[in-house]
Specification:
Largest sheet: 2 strands, parallel
Radius of gyration: 15 Å
Shape: elongated
Structural class: alpha+beta
Number of domains: 1
Strand content: 5-15%
Order of helices and strands: HEHEH
Helix content: 40-55%
Protein name: Luciferase-like domain-containing protein
Number of helices: 3
């Protein structure tokens, strides 16, 4: 849809940053990691270049540690 809209307006599709808001939920103990990584990979394949998100249970700090240690290193080169 965005590509068609850009074509109609004469806008360079590749010049647009594609962003989404997305729940970043690795699970309290990391049990959702495979699902989360798969979802992020799907978004990347769709052309999404930036993900802004919220982390459930962030007050416990553990989900942030999991994201930093086990998600960021995987997606850093995408």
């Amino acid at each position: 849809m965005l590509r068609n809209h850009c074509t109609a307006l004469g806008t360079d599709y590749d010049a647009i940053e594609k962003t989404v808001m997305f729940p970043l939920d690795p699970g309290a103990g990391g049990q959702n990691l495979d699902t989360l990584l798969g979802q992020l990979e799907d978004l990347a394949k769709l052309g999404v270049t930036h993900v802004h998100g919220w982390v459930p249970q962030v007050a416990s700090i553990t989900p942030l540690e999991i994201l930093g240690e086990r998600v960021v290193p995987v997606i850093a080169d995408w």
